[in-house]
Design brief:
About 75% of the residues lie in helices and about 0% in strands. It has two helices and no strands.
Amino acid sequence: MNHKSKLIVDEEDDLDNFNLDIQQDIMDAGKNYLKYYGKRKLRCKKFKRTRRERLNELVRLINDDVCKLQMTAEEKRLHYLDLDNMKLDDGQIKEEIQKELDAQRELEQIEAEQYAKRKEDML
């Protein structure tokens, strides 16, 4: 329905056109808001995604390093002392370390003897 008064001379005074202009302005403002909101939302998602990917990469690198350390320790037959759970004084700690060193030397000596024996057998 077109509600146009006979008193309206100018087209700008037409209420239907005013309402249409207001609706179009609201629609344009809504489109601009959604466009801005969409860009901001995508930017936040991208930031979170890149941060998550970076954290996952760092965790993967740490796990790789820990695995390498563990494999190296197993290859070299390294032992560690759990000093946090042991209630020892300095003298006891030195004794424990000395025991570990002596055990390591004995193991190395046995390996050297076995290597020498194999070498003699090969010659």
